[in-house]
Amino acid sequence: MRLRVKMPKFGLTMTEGTIVEWRKAVGESVQAGEILLVVETDKAEVEVEAPASGTLVEVIGEPKTVYPVGEVIAVMDALGVG
Hints:
Blueprint: E1 2-6, E2 16-22, E3 29-30, E4 35-40, E5 45-49, E6 54-59, E7 66-68, E8 72-78
Antiparallel strand pairs: 1-8, 2-4, 2-7, 3-6, 4-5, 6-8
């Protein structure tokens, strides 16, 4: 099943984040809990874990670009979800 990966919210006041780098590329397998990307907030850089195991099928969010919390930044083909 396709799983939309959204810009996470790390604090009560966070409204947006900047993608620093993707640690996985399209087509790569990902395990739940594995680092998928790094996001910069107004306070720190945070490693974002994959929400499920599967394959990264689309990267929408570009590095050095700001996205609002909740915006879809990638799509995974998740195993065992659905």
